[in-house]
Structure formats: structure tokens, C-alpha cells
Amino acid sequence: MCGIVGYTGDKRAAPFLLGGLEKLEYRGYDSAGVALSEEGNFQLLRRAGRVTQLKTPLEKLNSAAVTGIAHTRWATHGPPTEENAHPHLSEKKQWVVVHNGIIENAEELRRELADVKFKSETDTEVIPHLLEKQGEINPVEALVNTQKRLEGAWALGILCAAMPDTLFCACKGSPLLVGVGAGGTYLASDYAAFDEDVTTTYRLCDGEIGVLTKNTVCFYNCDGDIIDKSGEKFSWKEQRIDKGDYEHFMRSEIDQQPLALRQTLAQFFTDGAFSLSCELPEKPRKIWLIACGSAYHACVTGKYVIEELAKIPCETAVASEFRYCYPLIGDSDLAVFVSQSGETADTLAAVREANANGAVSVGIVNVPGSAIARECRIILPTKAGTEVAVATTKAYCAQLAVLYSLALHYVTDSKQKNAFQQALRRLPEDVQQVLDTTEKPAMDMAREIYEAEHAYFIGRNLDFSTVLEGSLKLKEISYLHSEAYPAGELKHGTISLVEEGTPVIALACCERLLPKTLANIREVMARGAAVFAVTTLDDIEDARGVITIRKTHPLVMPSLAVVPLQLLSYHVARLRGCDIDKPRNLAKSVTVE
Ligand code: AGP
Hints:
Blueprint: E1 3-9, H1 13-24, E2 31-38, E3 41-48, H2 52-61, E4 67-73, E5 88-89, E6 95-103, H3 106-112, H4 126-133, H5 139-149, E7 152-160, E8 163-172, E9 177-181, E10 184-188, E11 198-203, E12 209-212, E13 217-220, E14 226-227, E15 232-233, H6 236-239, H7 249-255, H8 257-266, E16 269-270, E17 273-274, E18 286-291, H9 293-310, E19 314-318, H10 319-322, E20 333-339, H11 345-356, E21 360-365, H12 371-375, E22 378-379, H13 394-410, H14 414-449, E23 454-459, H15 462-478, E24 481-486, E25 503-508, H16 514-526, E26 530-535, E27 545-548, H17 557-575
Parallel strand pairs: 18-19, 18-20, 20-21, 21-22, 23-24, 23-25, 25-26, 26-27
Antiparallel strand pairs: 1-4, 1-10, 2-3, 2-4, 5-6, 6-7, 7-8, 8-12, 9-10, 9-11, 11-15, 12-13, 13-14, 16-17
Helix pairs in contact: 4-5, 8-13, 8-14, 9-13, 9-15, 13-14, 14-17, 15-17
């Protein structure tokens, strides 16, 4: 949450800062701001709303500054106003700061800084004031002392008037990358923000400090001692994100699912032979599956599949709950953490909890080098490529593929193993076929439901875990209120909300439970519900709409069934005129608790 960029070099800073913010806007889009340094004078430009609000005023400013920092915000402390937008300046204008993270002891520090006139409600503003209170000491020393006063998480981009063309940075718990190119040095929350000039990158570790001039980078540990860090080669082409001819990233990412599956599964199949190539415990007592949001829904599917196939007891947990429920987890357990970004604060905290309890932690992560990827003992990567739309699609589909592969690793019955392995290898083509055949019916269905106020999703077993995801997709991008229930559960209360014409989206793909699901469908129809079904059946009597999908191995059906649900959400959101890639109030990386 929140994106930061910085630059110092030979070029004008403003174009890189603006372009970088645009690429990081997925991290938050409540407000945006820039600080440019010209011989120790800071020029600040901040706006509530999207990064685009900065474009014209920044162009008008036509600043020749070659050093600057910038920020796009997801509001935590204080509403998304211009006053609360970053950068934040110290009273004597000696320090200016952009921040991603949360300063947990901000209230206490504000009390301590009683003589300071705060200009914002943010937690961040304590940082420039604390730096200024250090007096005229070496900026690195000021930063060492200030970091020691902070609690929580931070990635900081800092300018200091005493050293006008130097960029300072530091982090703890929030990602921060330094880039080096022929034209200068760069700072960013994510590789995506770097431009083609960057050839080498460095990832800051907790407590580290970076000092960047136009042609040098120097790193210090949390005590201010110089350290050696090895850089990594960077290829801008590989990081470039482009939605091609698509109107939205989400739609292009839905279509990239077969590729995401191919790339993810390829790592586990060598010459047709399956292996996870990692040191997993032979027979864990229990497998915990822990994540947030869609990644949690992938875990629910994972539990059904692992338990049925590998006969190992599984427990799913929402990461924000796991941490505070005194989990009975120990060294004979496997703890699997699923995260696209690898940054989700609650999931990361859960990793630490599991590690502290001796469990073997496994990260299913899409962003290599992310905090969760670094802290888990074993990594099973998803290879979905950069996902830009806030609503996840291709990363979710790759997460399912890794969870299936984990189940396959533990299955003992060779007949079952062969059948499942074959289904996995066919999965990219099967998903492609569903994509090719369900767009039009999903659009037709969207036309029927987009004006509704509420919708209910129902399904049993793996159909239930899939409707959890279908319902989240619909509400997060279209703002149409929806809830997902196990099909048999609706009549225990929620069915009282079903009236004439209420859309009920029923998933009927789980073959062994079809008669039960069909009975539940009839129950809601009898109360006037307009039933829209996604099913392997050719038709469902009296349904208002039916999307038929092909059959595959029952345990990988969720990967096929979720596709029409993604397309349905996309088209409903489009018909409702929503900002599909950047739904209100959300951000792609949730780095706060
Ligand atoms: C779903 O579309 C989401 N945007 C959200 O639920 C997401 O899956 C969740 O925040 C977890 O993120 P992560 O995978 O990056 O940890």
C-alpha cells in the first residue's frame, strides 16, 4: 500500500517521478504528490485523488530539478485530502519525506513533539520532524537515530536540504528498491516503476539505509556502518507492463490464465516427470493453509483437494485471524502461505508466527524477493507474471495450480496420482477452451443482473470454494452486493432475503453432489429467485441463464469454473461503468494490518 519513487541524476526528475507513480498507482490511489529539490529548496506539489491530477500542474511548473521524490497514497491515518498527501515537510523545511507503511507509535511521538505544529493527520509527519530535531548532524546519523525511534513498518524516500542532490532511503517491513543506470540513481517500491535506464537493482533489507547520488550508491546497516550489498541485473523489458489492445488490465489478465498455468506447472514437470524439487516434510501432521482475500479462497479449494487426494488433515485460516487465535501449530506441521504480492502484512505476520512455532513454512508467492518469499523456509512460486489489476485473476489461477501440485506431491495411490497428473498437464488447454466458449454467455448473464442490488452465490464442496471467489470478484469491482454460501446453508437464514427476481448464481460442477445442488437450486427458485447457473450439465430446467463448461478431473474443476465467474464480474462492472482496474477504496498490496 502506497507507492514511492525517487530519482537523482542528469535528467529532469519530474517525468520519471510522474511515470513511476503511474506504474505504482495499483498500490493506492487516494492522493499523490511530488517534492523536487532545487539547490536545497523543496518544491512540493500534492493533490487529492489520482496521479493524473498532478500531471498538468507538474508540467506547468516545468521544473529543471534533477532530484526528487514522489508518492501515491492509500489512506490509513487521516482522509485522502491534499494536507494528508505525501511528501511531508519538516518545520524549518530541512527534510522532506515520503513513506509507505504505518508508524504504530505515531501518537506517542506526536505527544513528544509537542512544540511542533503538525500540518497533517498522518503518522508519517512525525518522521521529518524527528529528523530535524537531530540538529545539524550527518544525515545518515540522523536517520539511524530516527529509525530507532520508530515502531511499525516503513519504506522511506527522503531529501535533506543540507545535501540537495542526494537521495536518502531506509526501510523496515515495507519493500524498497534502489536502481542504478547510466543516467542516475532511482528509488521505487516495485521494479515496475523503473525505466529503461536502470541496469542494476538492490533490495533494501530491514533497518538498512541507502544514500544515492547521481553516480554512487552507498548502503549502511541500522547502526550506520557501511555495508556491501550485491546488486542484481535488471532488464526493463521483462518488467514492462502493457495491456495491449485490451481496455482493462483485468480482462487481459483473465486471458493470460492459460499462460500463467503453463509457466507455473512447467517448473514441476521435467520431461513429463513430476517433482516439486524441494525438501518438504515426508508426512506432516497437519497442513495449514493461510492467506487473505482471494488467496484465502485458493486455500479453501486447496484444503478440499489435499484432504481428498493426499488424506492429510488441513486447516485453513484467514491470516488476520490466525495470528491472534493462539494457533495450535508446531514443528510437525506444514504451514502454507499464499500471496500474490508477497507483501500482505497479515500474511507476513502469520509467517513469522508459524516460523516462531517451529512449523515448516512454505510460501506460494508471485513476486520473487518479496518479504513473504524471503521469510518462508520453502518457496513454491506462482509464475503468473506481473498482475496489475487490483482484482486478481491469473495469480489466483496460478495459486490453485501450485496447491494442486502440493496435493499431487503427497498422494500415495499411483492410480489416483496418474489421473490427477494428467488432468494437471491438460489444465492450460482446458482453461483456454472455457475462455473461448464462455465470454458471450457471461456477457448475456451480466446484462440480466447488472442492475440488481444484491446477488447470492451458491455451491457445494469445491463449487463452494469457487463461489467464494466469484462473489468477491463481483462485489470488489462492480460494487453489487453479493454473498457466497454453501448451497445447503442458505435455508438456515439467508433465504429470507430471496424475493421475486433476486439473482442467485449457482455453481453446479461438483458431480458427486449434483442432485443435492439441484435440490437447493429448486428451493431458491420456489421463492422467486432468478437462477443463473455455471454447470457441466447441458441445461438446468427453469434457470434464467446457463453457462455450460467442459468436464475435467473433478478436483481441478475449480480452475475451469472460476473463469465464467471472472468474466461475469468483469462485464457487470463494465455495464455499471466502474473503474475496473482500480476499484474504490482498494489497493493491490495490503501492507497494513
Ligand atoms: C482479490 O481480487 C484481491 N484484490 C484481494 O482479496 C487479494 O487477494 C488479497 O488482498 C491478498 O493479496 P495477496 O495475494 O497479495 O496476499
